[in-house]
Amino acid sequence: MPLAAPFRAPALRRAAPAAAVLAAVTSLVLAGAVHLLAAATVVALAGGAGATLAGVRLIRLAIRLPAPPDPHLPATGAPESASTSNIAADAHVRGTRRPSARRAVLLLHAAVTAAGLATAAPLLLGPEHRVATAAGSVLAAASAVLGLRALPGRSLPPVRVRLRRLVDAGTPAVALVLAGWLLLPRAAGPAPARFAVAALLGALGIIGLTALTGVHRRPGTATCRGGVTLTLLGLVLLAVFDPAVAAWPLLLAVPPLLVGMLLVAAGAARAVAAEPAPLSSAPAWLRAAPAGESPSQATAAVPAALVAAPVPPMLDGLADGPALLRALTVLGGNPPPAGALLVVELHLPDGDTAPRALRADVLAEAVRRARAVVGRRDLLAQVGEAGFAVVTEVGPMLAYALGDRLLAALTRPYQLGGAVFRVPASIGLAEVSGESPQDVLRQADLARRRAVQLGRDRVEWYDAFLEEQLVRRLDLERELPGAVARGELDLVYQPVLRLGDRRPVGTEAFLRWRSPVLGTVLPDELFPVAADLDIAGELEWWVLDRACRQVAEWTASSRQPWMAVNVTTGELTTPDFVQRTAAVLAAYGVPPEQLVVEVSEPRIGVELSTVVARLAGLRSVGVRTALDDFRAEHASLAQLRRLPIDLLKVGAPLVDPAPDTQRPLIDVVVNVGDRLGLEVVAEDLESAAQVRGARRAGCRYGQGFALARPATAERVEAYFEEFPSASR
Fold it and tell me: The domain 487-721: what is its CATH number?
């Protein structure tokens, strides 16, 4: 089932028909090149396949677009409410933009159909096909021009940008004209006619090249324009050459014809999708508008720099969803860096601790603070119930600095309702650089989610790696709940050695998730997700059960190594932890002294008294206890006397011989351990120097890659065989 999942992706489903048509047409062209099929037949079949696929996609696109509202139809029966103005604005938007989009798509469909019919002329009419092909080309060109004019987002870049592109295109244009002149056979006509055709081919080629590779205000419209140019280029080749004289030029017309038709359909779909959505079709989290503000007032909040004509400045309230989408659309057409979008989330007190009126006052005060920070030409728009977005024209670095200033302003204490409290905030930043408004919003929201995951009160910048991390996090959250039932969990064991003679005396169990979808997942990545899903306890009890079963098997073979298992403070502090542990040991017949329960010292925190009680309960039934990740700080040394433990595990930095200032500290730890009757274990030893430092400091036991790496139970058992008297 997981292997089939990628083939159900929508993107692959959309690309499959085009890939199949391209593969089939490639086979036809190869057959025509080796004279298995006539060139005219290949052109007719390829043109028909491309026109059919592009036509189907265009007509489906036209069907999905809503019909224009009837302006003469009275809106009777509609209740008068605060949303009446929203409905009217939505109807106006759909009436002014969507009919134009539908008309454009239908005209492009007519152009593709005419081009497909024109490709059949060489097959049906033979040498007399030129007039029919030329007529079809003119009809396709006329329909395409009208469709491009009606397509949403057909605005052109500034004159200086167009002049620069024209200059850049000069050299390729001359090269294309020269290539066309050299490739045209002399039998095609007199020299002036051949030169005119070569110039036309060069012009069409450079137009298509510029349309497909340039920086555009509307990428979808540019793609559509490039597809029309390539289609016309193929039709010109069909009209110029006679299959009776030379068949190979007809085969050269197939690639631009087919690719051009598919680009027309793809560009039209992208241009319509990038059009700012009306209010009724906008995402739910963008529809909310502040009380007392109409969409017309919110639309007027768009800065003058983001629209063609000046608009009144915003006085009160926030812009709504359509204004935000429109600002991103217009701003995205500027040459990069075009600007940035910041999505701000305020983590307001929940309804149980703060009344709704107080939450509204906090949001109003936050908006007031934000207005004092952002620039006059920046747009503020509401996002959800406890957040807002900022659209700015400045570059990414200045936008990040703006985010820092916003964070500092929003996280200052609030004095409202006779109380003083602080509201955390998370800000996500995404660049506006030619992407569709929906993509920019998604990227900024992903960055905001990352800021929340990393602890709030921070600004996170979107990048592709961030999206990969979030996608992997979602995959982990989806796959982890059933990992135990599917038998995907496994344990590896790292031997613990006595440093005096390098003989193994115990092992530590480490969890591994062998996911067929995600690969091997380590505990550092696994347990945070498990904690968020509230299944960390299930995983820890599985580890304890499997570790006890394994140590029982080793004990049966006359070996008695201890088995260390890590537990979190959340699971250790559960009321029945000691009883359940004793039950697992009894079920497998494991002597209690062979189990070591480890708890991390930095995670004890405020649960110190409960942790002390649970560790004492474990020792009362014979289970040994250990304190892991000992930090050797003053507070740690002070509370060490309170913890009922048998083993103290210190990290490699304490025993590293390089920094002389740390040697006395490890001596203090070892001396305190000796006085309290604790065995000191040096862990994470990765070099021979660290092993020597641990032994010289007085650590009795050690573990790490320099001594033995984690391995499966079978490999660890084979390792034990090298020490016949060890652990017996």
Answer: 3.20.20.450
